[in-house]
Amino acid sequence: MAEKRLSHAYLLTGPEGPERENAARQLAAALLCAAPEPPCGRCRDCRKVREGVHPDVIWVRREKKDEQLRREILVGQIRQMTADAALAPNEAERKVYIVDQADRMNQQAQNALLKALEDPPGHACFILCAAAADALLPTVRSRCIRTDAGGRDQRDDGMSELAKGYLEAAASGDRAEIVLYCMNRAKLSREETEAFAGQVRDAVRDVLCGRARDPGLGRDGLFHLAELMDKTEDYLRHNVQPKQIFGLLAAETLR
């Protein structure tokens, strides 16, 4: 946060209750706070988030029907959220959407959210709160930085370094180096492979948006890798094994 290397999506996991809600508020405050070490807790944005009155922090929760909470978060709620996300913030530099009980989204709602996570408005951030990450689609999980209610980053686990190494190997243009790289990663688990693809996608997006240096791939090369990550995630959804995924990357990273 202090280095302003912010993500557009976070998955906050932990038991439902005050601790998780407070962690979500703290994260929202950090995303809006302009202090050198956010959240400062003293600025206007931090105070309004703490008091629950900030107009740029929007909570999405299960709706009521006949005085009873619905079993799921519905696709209409997510579509309404993503439509609102296209509008400019009211006061802060960005808008933060907190989806409470995100593991209660039905599949249609998750697919609608996925579209926003793939191409988010520059001023919008999403915080998904869930008891367990496994209730969310792999493609949704892979686009989020996963953090528990205690603030520990769970998604990285070295995947950012693996993604960096992959981009450097791709930029080298050396097919043998790419093949060796992929062979050495073929034993990653399915979840690790999903996280790897998400990290590569984030890194490519950062370069294309000017937030990171191009390792030497050029615009066409970056778009090619983004399309390749789409193909990777589609194959993972159809139960293709990581070994075959990395075989695909060995063959298609260099056009």
How would you describe the shape?
globular
Q: In angstroms, what is the radius of gyration?
A: 19 Å
Structural class: alpha/beta
Number of strands: 7
Q: Enter the CATH topology name of the largest domain.
A: Rossmann fold
Instruction: Indicate the CATH architecture of the largest domain.
Output: 3-Layer(aba) Sandwich
- Helical fraction equals 40-55%
List the helices and strands and how they pair.
Elements: E1 9-13, H1 18-32, H2 44-51, E2 57-60, E3 64-65, E4 68-69, H3 75-85, E5 95-99, H4 107-118, E6 124-130, H5 138-141, E7 145-148, H6 159-172, H7 175-184, H8 190-208, H9 218-237, H10 242-252
Parallel strand pairs: 1-6, 1-7, 2-5, 5-6
Antiparallel strand pairs: 3-4
Fold and architecture overview:
There is one protein chain. Helix content is 49%, strand content 11%. It is α/β, with parallel strands linked by helices. It has two domains: 9-148, P-loop containing nucleotide triphosphate hydrolases (Rossmann fold, 3-Layer(aba) Sandwich), CATH 3.40.50.300; 159-252. The strands form two sheets. It has a five-stranded parallel beta sheet with strand order 2-5-6-1-7, with helices on both faces. Helix 1 runs antiparallel to helix 2 (44-51) and helix 3 (75-85) runs parallel beside helix 4 (107-118). The longest helix has 20 residues, at 218-237. It is globular.
